[in-house]
Design brief:
GMP Synthetase, Chain A, domain 3; five-stranded antiparallel sheet; SH3 type barrels; single chain; 8 strands; 3 helices; 2 domains; three-stranded mixed sheet
Length: 153
Amino acid sequence: MSKIADSVKEAADKLASELGYEIVDIEYAKKYSQMNLTFVLYKKDGIDLNDCENFHKRISDILDELDPTNGEPYILNVSSMGLDRPIKTDDDLRRNLNLKVEISLYVPVNKKKKFQGTVVSYDKDTVTISDNEENKLILNRKDIALMKPAIDF
């Protein structure tokens, strides 16, 4: 995280917790020729427009007091994670425990590089998924090129 994102993290986490959300990411970056401070939220039942608007209004007042950019202008954005956000961190895995994921590997396992299954466990080095027949596959996290929620239509 940038210094700006770090400086607002504690206050944002506190507010998010009070409102029943979890902060997934805070980013301060230049987009479309202007600086943007973006908060990405999560809650188990999903984030909707009202959640984003509520957090935006409340965090805006806090940011006015904190003045993390020392008066420099920025655009404040609040969003949900999105359906296909990559799963990278332990917190991402925790949120996706017992949910179906798609995994692409750097190197084949059993002659395959793509897998789909339910996340049944994880630790600092591995992720264990299970298919519908309860077959379990333990994958090394360092071998995972991309893991994201499986989207069934």
